[in-house]
Each structure stands twice: as C-alpha cells, then as structure tokens.
Amino acid sequence: MTYLLVAGAFFLFGCAGTGPIDKKATAETKALYKNMGRLSKKHTLFGHQHATEYGHGWSVQKDRSDVKSVTGSHPAVIGVDFSGFSGRSPEAIQSAKEAVRQNVIDTYNRGGVTTAAWHFSNPVSRGGFYWVDSLSLPAVKYIIPGGEAHEQYKEILRGIGEWAHSVKGADGKLAPVIFRPFHEFDGGWFWWGKPHTSREDFISLWQFTVSYLRDSLEVHNFIYAFSPDNKFNSEAEFLERYPGDKWVDMVGMDNYGDMGRDRYAIDTAAFKLKIVADYAKKANKLAAFTETGLESIPDPNWWTNTLLATMKKHPMRLSYVLVWRNDTRSPTHYYAPFPGQVSVPNFMKFYHDPYTLFEKDLKNIYKRKKFLGIF
C-alpha cells in the first residue's frame, strides 16, 4: 500500500491489483488491468461468450448481439475462443484466426473488453478438447518441457503469439486480451483435467505457457486468468493447482452447478466466489466470475434473484461476470436473453442496476487517468 498526502487529504493506491505480471505489458493492457480493479470497487462488467459472433437463430451479422437487441448495448466483455487455432487444416486455422482477430479488434475499437477461453484440441490424440476414455491421451505430460510433443506445443503457441501481435485497433495499438487457458481443470471432462495430469505437471504447463508467450514470443497484451470449476470449499482447495502469484493476473471461478443447473445454492455459490475474491484482494490480483449461467433461462427472475444475489451476498470486488453462449441453431442452448425470451424484463432490471456495467457504460477503459500529474 502507498499513501500520498495531497492538500491535506490522503489518497490510497495499490488496491485491487498493483499491475500485470508482465512488466513489459502495453500501456493499454496496464490501463485495462488498473481500470478493472478500480471499477470493481463498485461495479461488475457483464460478459457473454461469443456475443457478437452469433446468437439465437443468427450468425455473422455486423455489430449485432442478442444482448444489444434486448438492451441497446453490447456486453462490456465479449468472450472468444482459441479453439480453432490448432487441430485443423492450415486453411481452417487461418480462417479461425482471422475471424477472432477481427472480432477482438471490433470490440477494442468500440471500447469493450475481450476474454479468450481455449478449448484446446488434444495435440497428441483424437478426442478433441474433451476427455474420451477410448481415444484420449493425457497430453499434459507430453507437451510440457521434456515431453515428446513439447516442440509441437511450442509451434501451437507460436501461432497464438503471431495472432496476438496482429490484433491492432484503429488507433494502431494492440488490443489487450484476458487469456484464460486450461479452465475448469479441477474436473475430468477436459484432457488437462485433474484426473489426467499431476499437480506438478499442470503447474509446469501453466508456467511454461505464460513464460513462452510473454518472454520468448514477446506477447505483451495478455492478462492471464486462472479459473477452476466450483469443486472447492476452501482457499487451500482453490489453490491446489495454482501456479503462483508470479504467473497469474486474475483469479476466477466457473460455476453453473450451484446457479440452477444442478441446484439453486446461492449461499454456496457466494461462499465460493468470496474465497476467490478474498484471495485476489490478499494477493493484489483481479477477481472474476469467469463463467456461469442457466441454460434456456427458464427462471424469469434468474438475473436478479440468483446471479445478482450471489454476487452481492458478500462484499466482493469482481471485475466481470460472463454467461455462456447462445447457440445459433439449438432452440434451447442459450444463456443470455434475446427479444421475447421470458427473462427479458428481469434482465432489464439487471441491466439498469448501477452495479452492472455494459459496453455503453465503459469510458476510456484503455486509458489511465492522471491525477495531479501522477498516474
């Protein structure tokens, strides 16, 4: 903590994150990090996965999102995915990279924020990103330093690095991205999940990934987010596979189970979220509710009675909350409302609550405000 005395008044600095782990982070990345921390004292940004790529019954329409169709504003945070960056033909990979690149640039130009998940197709076996008993190999031990597929993994990371250097906005600056690799690692459904790799190998994978992107490939526009699923009940359990404060910018949690999918357990969800937020405060990190939602949103008051109630249960500083995608073809696979959906009136209450911020509410999130000449 640093206290500064100016004209008889104390000003407190150092709360909610002291800066990214990348000391060479771009000015815009540093500003985003600082501003998310500052905003989280009173607000939480609302996010939606794949919001502007497609939605309920539509795809690839410029400047459209289901959230904007309902509220007049895009979500503050747009989720994208690096899933198409490997495991496909070179042509398909290039097409995926270009589509995501343009999405990130458009979001940055509008003043919104991007977070990238990575549903990483198994690099050493069939089965995709899910664990399939009859097909999947436990890839983590193969791709970490010393593993027989380590060079192949470095090649995949080089592709991500090249992409990261290409996302330049209209101002000529690189768009920052909250990168959230190897999420929900405490479950067994992904090949990087707990049953398929040791704690030591998972930590090695995380540390190498960050180091190679940041230090070898000179990627300086990533903020690194660590997010298990909801399978913890204490700080010690939350941190079981934590790679260390030097390797993480943001801590989060994915939780669908306590939010209506398996049970309505607001107290439990809020307790787990508080573990995340308390650790972030203690370690000077950002915190986020990195994934949640209720498929089909059959509860018309879910937004205020479940989601908002969970986030407001305890004093917590949460940078953002993100709900999952709206599938373009499925009549039931959606997590944000669209015009006519039963939860729209309640979502509008959620939208107008001063606690939630949407893209229209963000002002210069990539600029650091000066005060008496001091940043």
From TrEMBL:
Record field: catalytic activity: Random hydrolysis of (1->4)-beta-D-mannosidic linkages in mannans, galactomannans and glucomannans
Pfam short name (any one): Glyco_hydro_26
Chain sites annotated for binding substrate: 119, 189, 256
One term of GO molecular function: mannan endo-1,4-beta-mannosidase activity
Signal sequence, start to end: none
Example GO biological process: substituted mannan metabolic process
UniProt key word Secreted: yes
Entry superkingdom: Bacteria
Active site, renumbered: 184 (proton donor), 291 (nucleophile)
Keywords on record: Carbohydrate metabolism, Glycosidase, Hydrolase, Secreted
Subcellular location: Secreted
Residue ranges annotated for the GH26 domain, each copy included: 27-360
EC number of the protein: 3.2.1.78
PROSITE patterns (UniProt xref): GH26
Enzyme class: hydrolase
InterPro entries xrefs: GH, GH26_dom, Glyco_hydro_26, MANB/E
Site for Plays an important role in maintaining the position of the catalytic nucleophile, residues: 183
Xref: PANTHER family: GH26 DOMAIN-CONTAINING PROTEIN-RELATED (PTHR40079:SF4), MANNAN ENDO-1,4-BETA-MANNOSIDASE E-RELATED (PTHR40079)
Family of the protein in this entry: Belongs to the glycosyl hydrolase 26 family.
Name of the protein in question: Mannan endo-1,4-beta-mannosidase
